Amino acid sequence: MTDSSRITTERIKRLLTAFARSEPPEEDALDFTFFDDALTQAERFIEIRDIMRQHAEQRLQYYRQALRQKTTAEQDVEQQIAADSIAESIHLQAWSAIYYRYLKMDGLSSRQLQQMAGINERRLQRRVEQGIRYLTQMIQEKDRLARAGHLRLQMPAAGHHMLYGLEAALSRITRLLGDHEYRFISLEGLGGIGKTALAWSVVDRLRQQQPADIHGIEWLSARNEILNDHGQIEVVDSRIHSMQDIFNRLADRLPGHTTEPLTFEKQREKLASGLNRHPYLVVIDNLETVEDSDLLLPELEKIAGQSRFILTSRVSLQHFPYVHSIRMSELSQFDSYTLLKEEVFRLSRRSLSDQEARRIYEMVGGFPLALRLISGQLAELPTETVIESLEAIRGPLPDDQPQSTLLHDDHATLFRFIYRTTWQRLDDACRLLLLALYDISTDGINLEGMQTRATHLGLSNRQFVDTLRTLQRHALLEFRGDVPRYSLHRLTLTFLKRDILHPQWQL
């Protein structure tokens, strides 16, 4: 069984080169989990080529239809390549380049493709490399789904969103976890910066790799508020908000659970033995909300044994000598542009120009959550309207201050404005369903649970489907997993608490 992390762009490129030359590659290049073991190397070679070709053809058809292009049935190959090349879609350009260069029967040479597309060698190479990245992601996902994971998991399901600009951090953390010197790693930064998304991605990669030295994964989230039946926020004891809660939850979930009451000392001894005998990866999300976190970490350090911990926190933990702190920064300009463009295109089939992406980035910065929320607005409103609204809350700048002064310097104002603007565009059904989700756990609920809440609100099936799509489009719902589970981001919860459920506000 292959390790999905070994499916690299270089490996896919070797396969594509083999296709172009009609020469089978070395054996390890064809080692994929989704292949039937009975297949010969020649059969694997043909099958992987067909998988890639069919996927590329599907993507080409999808983007051409979205841009209302004519199909290849209505024009010859040269005309189709030229139309793809000038299309306002980086996706279509990349898929077209990789398909006609390597995947189409009797593929074209680099020089032929350059001439038909009307571009130089350097630009063609960039498009081909992007296409290889898309193919690599597809094969990695196909391989991941074919792997029957042996890890015992207690964690949220995977997010559908791509991870932009965090591949280096993902690889670094995975590497650190393989070194037993690093037992505690904290991901630190402002809300909306991507701490939880990165922690999940680390866990998902470990699930794919199935390391022999990790017996299981436990995911704990320190959220301790719900919305009761009277529309009021209340603190509940069933959530994790103290050191004792975390110890209790770990004791319940780890092997050898007992129902007999234990003193704190006995419980600590039992956990220390279990975590050392069966090494776990424990993720504690939103650690800063735990009341006695400064007391918790020294106690966890005593019982960790061979187990490892990932902590996400808005507050730095670098004063603990055994904690390796990683301060998360905003996305780069390139990654922010990419996220904006791909999300807007996904939601509205509309292409955002570099100039429009730059103007938004200059005010919003590289906060992934903020960029997704803005993308939801851009899918429904003219770009200029969204930009003017952002400029309005930034206010006029002094003459000696550069025009690129960032609105995101005021983190709270930025998110409050984006959420409030989005809220104002929601109809009553969307608002009610969003409020009805305030009390769900961080593990989320499935589609059936969502529909039950919608039914209690009096929504018809059609209204529920439309409402769900709207909330997803505006990035107000976190939905994860091959069988999706739905939850709310902490910043969404904060907005509902402070701006919507505040006594002076009325729905």
SSE topology sketch:
Elements: H1 9-21, H2 41-66, H3 77-86, H4 90-103, H5 110-117, H6 121-146, E1 152-154, H7 167-178, E2 184-188, H8 195-209, E3 216-221, E4 225-227, E5 233-235, H9 243-253, H10 264-277, E6 280-285, H11 293-303, E7 308-313, E8 323-327, H12 333-348, H13 354-364, H14 368-378, H15 383-394, H16 411-424, H17 428-436, E9 445-446, H18 447-456, H19 461-473, E10 478-480, E11 485-487, H20 490-500
Parallel strand pairs: 1-3, 2-7, 2-8, 3-6, 6-7
Antiparallel strand pairs: 4-5, 9-11, 10-11
Helix pairs in contact: 2-4, 3-4, 4-6, 7-8, 9-10, 12-13, 12-14, 13-15, 14-16, 16-20, 17-19
Main traits of this protein?
disordered C terminus; 507 residues; single chain; Rossmann fold; Arc Repressor Mutant, subunit A; 6-stranded parallel sheet; alpha/beta; 53% helix
Task: Give a verbal description of the structure.
The chain is of the alpha/beta class and 507 residues long. The protein has 3 domains: 4-146, no CATH class; 152-327, 3-Layer(aba) Sandwich (Rossmann fold); 334-500, Arc Repressor Mutant, subunit A, CATH 1.10.10. Helix content is 53%, strand content 9%. It has helices spanning 9-21, 41-66, 77-86, 90-103, 110-117, 121-146, 167-178, 195-209, 243-253, 264-277, 293-303, 333-348, 354-364, 368-378, 383-394, 411-424, 428-436, 447-456, 461-473, 490-500, and strands at 152-154, 184-188, 216-221, 225-227, 233-235, 280-285, 308-313, 323-327, 445-446, 478-480, 485-487. The strands form 3 sheets. The protein has a 6-stranded parallel β-sheet, with helices on both faces. Strand 4 and strand 5 form a beta hairpin. Helix 2 (41-66) packs antiparallel against helix 4 (90-103), helix 3 packs antiparallel against helix 4 (90-103) and helix 13 (354-364) packs parallel to helix 15 (383-394). It is globular and about 75 Å long.
